[in-house]
Design brief:
By secondary structure, this protein is mainly alpha-helical. Helix content is 74%, strand content 0%. The protein has a single domain (45-179), classed as Tetracycline Repressor, domain 2 (Orthogonal Bundle), CATH 1.10.357. It has helices at residues 2-15, 18-25, 29-35, 39-62, 68-80, 87-102, 104-107, 112-131, 140-160, 169-179.
Length: 187
């Protein structure tokens, strides 16, 4: 699994072969095929493991914040903290979103990270409406889609670029945007 994680992170789904994984793991290809009958099955297991380790934990931590802004920024901070342990973890998780759209064989399966994140953001938005943080006439599905695009866009950015510098600038700026303090009050 570790070797598969490394190779999928480096080469993506399309560029990865079972032989490359076998070579990295120092085992024979039939040894891998004994446990995983296809590259798709192995990829799903690797992504599911990353989802369990990163996204589920981030949602649990973020849900404790008392405001929508705190919850969303908490999700981003917790998700991107995985970089401290493994630089490729967030990159693989982020690219799994894209890979599920690119490859017909993956499109047939559910991307659990996206499903869980959508469930979390929907819960957070509805709770924010109930607390009066958002207008009562907020269109929940549209706002959730926009927030998912922003969250995963930042995760992708952090997974490939920003994490190498260790800065939380995108999260700080996202917080300021949500709080309405990013733009100056020029009249």
């Amino acid at each position: 699994m570790d070797a598969a994680h490394q190779v999928f992170s480096e080469r993506g789904y399309n560029g990865t072969t079972m032989q490359a994984i076998a070579d990295r793991a120092h085992v024979s290809r039939p040894a891998i095929n004994n446990h995983f009958t296809s590259k798709r099955m192995l990829y799903r297991r690797v992504v599911e493991a990353g989802n369990a380790a990163i996204v589920a934990a981030a949602i649990g931590a973020a849900a404790q914040a008392p405001t929508l802004t705190g919850q969303l920024c908490g999700f981003l901070a917790a998700t991107t903290q995985a970089d401290a342990v493994d630089l490729s973890a967030v990159a693989l998780l982020a690219t799994s979103m894209l890979e599920h759209q690119r490859h017909p064989e993956l499109r047939r399966t559910n991307n659990e990270a996206l499903t869980q994140t959508r469930r979390f953001v929907t819960w957070a938005v509805v709770a924010a409406m109930e607390r009066g943080e958002l207008a009562a006439d907020t269109t929940v599905p549209s706002l959730v889609d926009m927030l998912l695009a922003a969250l995963w866009g930042i995760v992708i950015y952090r997974g490939f670029l920003e994490s190498r510098r260790g800065s939380d600038v995108p999260i700080t700026q996202f917080r300021r945007l949500l709080e309405g303090t990013l733009w100056s009050d020029v009249r």
